[in-house]
Design brief:
eight-stranded mixed sheet, Rossmann fold, alpha/beta
Length: 346
């Protein structure tokens, strides 16, 4: 449900969906029943609960933050493998997945505050390696800027950049921002539709909830459809969408621009295919910009690296999960080595 997939190539338009190995065999890629229900609901204050799912043991703890509108299932092919090395937790942001909604807007600042409150309430102590997909590429940077003593590494998987919109909208014919704003307005109508009650089989339901994902089992798709039709999910998704290139982008710009020597590994799917409404030159410019933005994030550390991942879609963690697993394990290994160097000799 990550609507930033529409803009990951810096153009309003098509979503690229690539076939997965599991689908080719007729078997869903993901069928773990853990994603059909909340795993651990933690009170983060005033009775509001957030869902968190942790596996494994060890330090640092890896925190997995999904893309816009997504849930813990984004990491289903990654989390169990990382758990063989250290503790790893995925979670649902406010109003998404199985987490309760919040009256606060879905901005990067509020998301970072929520995550910190969740980790404290769940007694998951730092240090953390933060992993963010798509919009969460900005969210983890805001968290790391706010709590620098707690973060020892970051992995950005196709992460959004605070200048992605303003620099991308300058490419091609004028009106790119207007297209995005019109799309936001169109989908915010889903909030009212959910309040009235979204009915399966209607055009409103098809637009606001969507079709089953062939990567997931029927049980997982049913669970996603149930919460996707709720007012709290539609309101939370709309709030994040509205904020991502405006309030969240501005908040991310205010974060510090250098994170010292902690590992920052950026994974970039490139090139994106040419959309129907753009020229080859425009696509080439957008591809170069997407790679440049990711290089800028990697350059925020003396141990930053940008890895180009070809033959993938926006969801590298589905199309090439081993690439994401390797990046996380590399960041964890560096953090563990650094930790050992700072342990006083006895």
């Amino acid at each position: 449900m990550d609507y930033l997939a529409r803009l990951a190539g810096l153009a309003v338009g098509a979503v690229l969906v690539l076939p997965c190995a599991g689908q080719a065999s007729g078997k869903p890629l993901i069928d773990d029943p853990a994603y059909t229900r909340p795993q651990r609901l933690v009170d983060v204050g005033h009775g509001r609960r957030m869902n968190i799912y942790c596996l494994g043991f060890g330090s640092p703890t890896v925190i997995l933050d999904a893309g816009m509108g997504d849930s813990t299932i984004s990491w289903a092919l990654v989390q169990p493998r990382v758990a063989a090395r250290t503790r790893v937790c995925s979670y649902d942001r406010a109003g998404l997945g199985f987490s309760d909604g919040s009256s606060a807007p879905g901005t990067a600042d509020n998301i970072a505050n929520d995550l910190h409150a969740l980790l404290e309430a769940a007694e998951i102590a730092p240090p953390y390696v933060l992993v963010g997909h798509s919009a969460a590429g900005m969210y983890i940077r805001v968290f790391a800027d706010r709590y620098p003593r707690e973060v020892v590494g970051m992995v950005s998987v196709e992460g959004s950049h605070e200048d992605q919109s303003v620099r991308g909208w300058a490419i091609g014919a004028p009106g790119q921002q207007a297209k995005w704003d019109a799309w936001l307005d169109e989908y915010e109508a889903c909030i009212g539709a959910a309040r009235r009650g979204l009915v399966k089989g209607t055009p409103e339901y098809a637009k606001c909830v969507g079709e089953p994902d062939p990567r997931f089992s029927p049980a997982i798709n049913a669970a996603q459809a149930r919460y996707g039709a709720t007012f709290r999910w539609q309101a939370a998704a709309a709030s994040e969408r509205r904020a991502v290139f405006y309030a969240s982008a501005e908040q991310t710009r205010k974060t510090r621009r250098h994170f010292g020597d902690i590992p920052i590994i950026v994974l970039t799917h490139s090139p994106y295919p040419k959309a129907r409404d753009e020229t080859r030159q425009e696509r080439n410019e957008r591809t170069l910009l997407w790679e440049t933005l990711h290089l800028e994030v990697a350059a925020m550390s003396t141990r930053g690296v940008n890895v180009i991942v070809p033959d993938s879609g926006h969801y590298i963690q589905y199309d090439h999960p081993q690439v994401v697993i390797d990046a996380i394990q590399q960041a964890v290994a560096i953090a563990q080595e650094d930790g050992e160097e700072h342990v006083p000799a006895r």
